[in-house]
Design a protein that fits this description.
The chain is an alpha/beta fold. 30% of the residues lie in helices and 18% in strands. It has three domains: 250 residues, Rossmann fold; 176 residues, Dimethylsulfoxide Reductase, domain 2 (3-Layer(aba) Sandwich), CATH 3.40.228; 129 residues, Barwin-like endoglucanases, CATH 2.40.40.20.
Length: 723
């Protein structure tokens, strides 16, 4: 038995691991206790990797649909057949009839997305989709509308206050520095950081907060506007910073005038005093940050929520200033220069191509994935006819499952790259079997890219790790790395690949990396090509097999450049219009007659969400509990464990209720991206229940980014008869 130092690639927390290997097989994965940041932290998903590698249901051979199921097909034959079909579709319908969806699974290798992106560019299709336009898309749009600071937020750098809105770092590793989120929070709390939480659920992190607001869901916009209102009314803003770097203060004051603590307290069902107190504590603390999880964006306009968050950060001056060291710098990408100055806003939508559905466009968060089903089903020349889906499960994770299934079944070609036969893979014409992460080399390039975005994933300081492949794929398997599949398709199609460079500044010119289309590069060579120009040479990172911090004390924020005239816009007219509309909606309570509960989406620790519902993680709980407050259950004469029907205006699902006293009353909380297609409805105890079926593509939470409403869904709950 040997021990190999590596890191987990099952999520963006990138835990350093020690992997025990025997006879070429993974035996056990454990956290690396010698690491000061992670301190040996791993989660059950990371520790389950050996079981996943050896799982009897793992897809080890490529599959091709035939009349009565799937048959094995070799990699060369599959690639040639798929390329031929793509060529026919492109010749008949044009390049934009081919779409690519690179989902969360692409994060397991930094090569996957660059190679598929290059393939799409090479065939001339702009139809690249990602979860970016569903998972907190507003961060990208808000940054464009508000303007970007040319240095990072204070963020995790010595925070005096953290305001988490619908975010739970214990589950998502978002909102506390990557590593061991609980330990990081404890250390900050010991140092005196104030933790403020807004969440309709008393979550793990809310229990540690000094102040927790537990509002009705769907009112984050008005709450944020109220915090701004209090800051302005009580003169709690950083006047010097705002005067020098922002414009629109008086327009902003007028726009939030109706969001008084009393009015918002009525809409959100919280005490007005707690809104005032939260605003004061946030503004008076000094340094800090606000992290919004998916919850606020699922049920409100993600763009408006994140825009108001940026306005609050600017009003309190939460941006690194001239002379400060930048702790969170990229390592495997170029870094800096940084300046204490604002870039003026730029368009957030109307970029690139126009979609065929609902007048949507490309935005700074990408194309609208939430409505891709409509792009497939619509009539006309913009119809999508082929979809390559990598590392994702749209049947469970895109809104409106019924419409999504209809769309996938309408495609002329659906190729799914996935190590398991998910409900989406079962709809595919071809399933390509990829390796699992410990079977490939990897490096923390995506994490560097993400801290540039910026988001609240990733460590508080510059960190990098490289790992060789730890084991070979199982003997006799045909697995093909995702990037190689893209490369082989390009070769079959006769198109050259040029990888897009990742860069610190969004406006930096793309420097293409030409791929050798005669002699296929190795994975190691391809990784090295993506790290060209990195702040720290890849060879230096490789010298630290356990990973390392790579601080750069000399990389400081420069003073504002002479003649610089960029300024933030803290009262963007479109956002202020959206705010006024949100207030109007609050005044006229939504007609939810017949649907007295609100469904919100949560994440649970022991689930691989959409990938695999299996005892290696779910501890033999296969169903997707519908959590409700015990008093709501009592009012409905239900007991924990009872089967129910949950209905929305769109559809209904069956589920099993469980008691959750930490929820507000009036809510139903379920894990998203769960369950199966309608054919499995009778087996809801064994397969789980899919909340995506309760959503409709006709109801946008965020019209700018084309994001359907995913949270705060009006639903009814009834006992399921005869079960
Ligand atoms: S938190 Fe879990 S899944 Fe994520 S990197 Fe760590 S061990 Fe892997």
């Amino acid at each position: 038995m040997t021990e190999v130092r590596s890191f987990c690639r099952a999520c963006l927390n990138s835990c350093p691991t020690i992997v025990e290997v025997e006879y070429g097989r993974l035996l056990r994965v454990r956290g690396d206790k010698t690491n000061d940041i992670w301190d040996g932290y791993t989660c059950i998903k990371g520790r389950a990797q050996p079981d996943l590698h050896a799982h009897p249901n793992r897809v080890l051979h490529h599959l091709k649909r035939v009349d009565d199921g799937f048959v094995r097909v070799g990699a060369d034959a599959a690639t040639a057949e798929i390329a031929a079909k793509l060529r026919t579709i492109i010749d008949t319908h044009g390049p934009r009839s081919v779409a690519y969806y690179g989902a969360t699974g692409v994060a397991q290798s930094p090569l996957t997305d660059p190679f598929f992106g290059a393939l799409m560019r090479a065939v001339g299709s702009p139809m690249r989709f990602s979860p970016n336009s569903i998972d907190k898309p507003g961060r990208h749009l808000a940054r464009a509308l508000h303007g970007a600071w040319m240095a990072p937020l204070q963020g995790y750098q010595d925070p005096d206050v953290a305001l988490l809105i619908g975010a739970n770092p214990y589950r998502t590793y978002y909102g506390a520095a990557a590593g061991n989120p609980g330990r990081w929070l404890s250390q900050r709390l010991d140092e005196g950081m104030e933790l403020l939480v807004i969440d309709p659920r008393r979550s793990d992190v809310a229990k540690r907060a000094s102040l927790h607001l537990q509002p009705r869901p769907g009112h984050d916009v008005e709450i944020l506007a109220c915090l701004i209102h209090v800051l302005l009314a009580e003169d709690l803003i950083d006047h010097e910073f705002v005067a020098e770097n922002a414009e629109g203060l008086e327009d902003l004051r007028r726009a939030v005038a109706r969001c008084t603590p009393e009015a918002v307290a009525g809409w959100a069902d919280v005490a007005p005093e707690s809104l005032v107190e939260l605003a004061r504590r946030f503004a008076r603390a000094g340094r800090g940050y606000i992290a919004c999880g998916v919850g606020p964006g699922f049920s409100n306009s993600s763009t408006l929520v994140e825009y108001l968050v940026l306005v609050l950060e600017t009003l309190t001056g939460h941006w690194l200033r001239a002379g400060e060291v930048v702790d969170r710098v990229p390592t495997l990408l170029p870094a800096g220069p940084y300046f204490a100055q604002a870039q003026s806003p730029k368009p957030a939508w109307g970029l690139g191509i126009e979609m065929g559905f609902a007048g949507l466009t490309q935005t700074s968060a990408g194309l609208p994935t939430g409505t891709l089903a409509e792009e497939i089903l619509q009539q006309g020349h913009k119809k999508v006819r082929a979809l390559i889906c990598v590392g994702g499960n749209p049947v469970l994770s895109w809104p409106d499952q019924t419409r999504v299934l209809e769309a996938l079944r309408d495609l002329e070609l659906l190729v799914v790259v996935d190590p398991f036969m998910t409900p989406t893979a079962r709809e595919a014409h071809y399933v390509i079997a990829p390796p699992l992460p410990y079977e490939t080399p990897g490096m923390t390039l995506l994490q560097d890219h993400i801290i540039n975005t910026p988001t609240f994933y990733g460590p508080a300081e510059a960190w990098a790790q490289y790992t060789d492949a730890v084991v070979d794929p199982p003997a006799g398997s045909d697995v093909l790395p995702e990037w190689e599949f893209a490369y082989d398709l390009a070769r079959e199609l006769g198109v050259p690949l040029e990888l897009g460079a990742m860069s610190v500044t969004p406006d930096a010119p793309a420097v293409g990396i030409k791929v050798d289309m005669v002699n296929k590069p190795t994975a190691e060579e391809s990784l090295a090509s993506l790290a060209v120009g990195s702040r720290v040479p890849l060879d230096e990172v490789k010298r630290h097999p356990s990973g390392s911090t790579f601080p750069s004390p000399s990389l400081r924020v420069g003073a504002k450049q002479d003649g610089w005239s960029g300024r933030f816009d803290i009262a963007n007219s479109s956002m202020m219009g959206d705010l006024a509309a949100a207030v109007e909606r609050s005044d006229a309570a939504e007609d939810d007659h017949g649907f007295p509960f609100r469904l919100i989406m949560i994440r649970e620790q022991n689930q691989f969400n959409s990938t695999l519902n299996d005892p290696i993680m779910n501890r033999n709980r296969f169903h997707n509990p519908a959590y409700m407050h015990p008093e709501d259950l009592a009012d409905l004469a239900l007991r924990p464990g009872d089967p129910v029907t949950i209905s929305s205006r769109r559809s209904h699902i069956r589920a099993i209720v469980e008691a959750e006293p930490n929820l507000r009353r009036g809510l139903v909380a379920m894990s998203f991206a769960y369950g199966g297609p309608p054919e499995t409805d009778d087996a809801f105890r064994e397969v789980g229940s899919p909340p995506s079926r309760l959503l409709t593509l006709a109801d946008f939470a965020d019209p700018h980014v084309g994001m359907p409403r995913i949270g705060d869904i009006p639903v009814a709950v009834e006992r399921l008869a005869a079960h």
